[in-house]
Amino acid sequence: VLRVQPNFRSNLLATRLSKLANLNEHELGILSAIEGKPKYSFPENSRILNEGHEINAAYVIISGWAYLHRTLADGRRQLLKVVLPGDAIGLCSRSRPLALTTAVALTPVKTVEAGELLAAWSEDGRTPGIANALEMSAAEDEYYLLCHAARLGRQTAYERMAHLLCELEYRLASRGLSSGGVFLLPMTQEVLADVLGLSVVHVNRTLQQMRRENKIEFNRGKVSMLDLNGLLNAGEFTPPKVSAHAVAG
Amino acid sequence: VLRVQPNFRSNLLATRLSKLANLNEHELGILSAIEGKPKYSFPENSRILNEGHEINAAYVIISGWAYLHRTLADGRRQLLKVVLPGDAIGLCSRSRPLALTTAVALTPVKTVEAGELLAAWSEDGRTPGIANALEMSAAEDEYYLLCHAARLGRQTAYERMAHLLCELEYRLASRGLSSGGVFLLPMTQEVLADVLGLSVVHVNRTLQQMRRENKIEFNRGKVSMLDLNGLLNAGEFTPPKVSAHAVAG
DNA sequence: CGTTAGGTTGAGCAATATCAAATTCGGTGG
DNA sequence: CCACCGAATTTGATATTGCTCAACCTAACG
Questions:
Q1: Between chains, do A152 and B100 touch, taking CB under 8 Å as contact?
Q2: Greatest alpha-carbon span in chain B
Q3: Which residues on A lie below 8 Å from B93 (Cβ)?
Q4: Cα distance from N-terminal residue to C-terminal residue, chain B
Q5: Which of A81, B5, B182, B214 has the fewest CB atoms below 10 angstroms from its CB?
Q6: Helix (H, G, I), strand (E, B), or coil: what is residue A70?
Q7: What confidence tens digit (pLDDT) does each residue in B162-202 have?
Q8: Which pLDDT score, from 0 to 100, does residue A221 have?
Q9: Is there a contact between B244 and A96 if contact means CB atoms under 8 Å apart?
């Protein structure tokens, strides 16, 4: 059986960061060393960070998905960021940082500890590429968060869903985890609802409308975006452009 | 006539940053020198940054309010951040940065150019206090943006309004621009609607409900929060706590 | 097979949007 | 001082989107 898409990629970190800035051999070495470090496993639904608690380690996700969220007193929940393989959690340069949100494993998650990234970020001299790439990555994160706010504030259910799918596809593609609009999406409709600020029922109906219109397939955690252009248009998704520097191929 | 609250404060920047980290005399000197620099004026509704365009200067707002926003193809608009006196616009350490959102003057705005802040941020050795304070400030900005997303995604109109008013009061108070829940709010209901992801009419009705319940007064751009606790509770507002470090009084 | 989590469906409802008109308010020119 | 103007606010009526509740279905898994 042909695997449409790998669940696991080695070189995730280097793949991703080298698209954000030019990295030299030394820096690539550091990144692959980080990926080779011992793995920390977080079971599904376990907490990786607690809002308000001190952050003790910077992690990079090697496999699995996570999310940042906030919960209101009566239980209403809003996801604030979907964290993909290759993303960091708790990578933060201020001193004695407190977590601004709670982070939870959406699937079983494996991470490596990535203090080296923090070191490479501050010590500008010897790892300018990594420092640069991390800066770009942080800016992209901010961009996606801004988009998230605009989505929640001013888009309809259909538009939100389209925008989210486009965003995920785009982010996954840059890690080699999506191709041709086909990717694994390990989210229940309830989780989607809490990303998009909608009810489960309405998410269900929105997905059905997209299926009816032949925009997507979505079964057993696998999405196929049949009409990527249509969705990009409906959701008005625009990929991040955070710097005027070009990255050499 | 007693002025309830000053429109203009000298020492805005030093006031604000010294609440975020301990600053030495040298650093306080740098900050007040920045505030003394020549002013750039932006008329009401003029653009300060354009999304996607390169950022050429870092500004600090000395007087007036601004906002960051994004607009959809059909004109729907979502404000993403309200920028207050003492806040920076375009303070950004990556190389050749592009603006992630458009910035617009909500009122006439005066700024100073603040390249010194960028310099003080990177050159860690001699201005650790400023570097630290800027780090904290950036983290608080992120916190407010996360709150904004949660507000838009999962709170009711009434809760959103309560949360926003509490946030603004809190941020203004740290600059000496609010006391006892009384402050100037230079926003039309239409702007409030675009902050909160609501229609103007609904903003109007929500404000009226708050007036009826004696939670607020809001006339001619002046807000009095008559029941601060009630509003904190209704909006579930929590001030940012971004670091475990205490700041010496 | 039975159990269970997740997905689907229908009916009714609540929150909020839209539209259109009326009113207030702060200027501004006569 | 007054009349007028435009912007902002307010109001009422109606429409729509998306929510809630409850039932039912399906597929995976032990």
A1: no
A2: 55
A3: 135
A4: 33
A5: B214
A6: strand
A7: 999 999 999 999 999 999 999 999 999 999 999 999 999 99
A8: 94
A9: yes
Does residue B201 lie within 7 Å of nucleic acid chain C, judged by its CB?
A: yes
Q: A interface mutation test: which of B17, B55, B95, B156 has the most A CBs within 10 A?
A: B95
What are A23's two structure tokens? 């990295």
Probe site for chain B from A54, A78, A123, A233 (most B CB atoms < 10 A): A78
Which residues in chain B are closer than 8 Å to A122, comparing Cβ atoms? 124
In this prediction, residue B124 has a pLDDT band, given cuts at 50, 70 and 90, of: low
Q: What are the pLDDT digits (tens) for B80-122?
A: 999 999 999 999 989 899 999 999 999 999 999 999 999 998 8
Q: Which nucleotides on strand D sit less than 7 A from a protein beta carbon?
A: 7-13, 17-22, 28
A128-142 pLDDT, tens digit per residue, is: 999 999 999 999 999
pLDDT at A115: 94
- Compute the C-alpha angle B155/B184/B18, nearest 5°: 85
Positions of strand C less than 7 angstroms from a protein CB? 5-11, 15-20, 25-26
Mark out the alpha helices in chain B (DSSP H runs): 12-18, 25-35, 115-122, 128-154, 157-173, 189-196, 200-212, 228-235
Share of chain A above pLDDT 70, in %: 95
A150: nearest CA partner in chain B: B78
Please name the residue of chain B whose CA is at the shortest distance from the CA of residue A102. B146
The pLDDT of residue B1: 28
If pLDDT is split at 50, 70 and 90, which confidence band does B123 have?
A: confident
DSSP string, A5-66: S-S--TTHHHHHHHTTS---HHHHHHHHHHHTSPPEEE-TT-EEE-TTSBP---EEEEES-E
Are A150 and B97 within 8 A, CB to CB?
no
Answer for B198: CB within 7 Å of strand C: yes
Q: Which of B164, B105, B114, B113 is nearest to B134 (CA)?
A: B114
CA distance B106 to B97: 24
Q: Any residues with CB less than 8 A from the CB of B199 and at least 6 apart, and which?
A: B193
For B146, which of A80, A95, A242 is closest by C-beta distance?
Answer: A80
- The amino acid at residue B134 is L
DSSP SS3 for B105: strand
Which amino acid would we find at residue B226? L
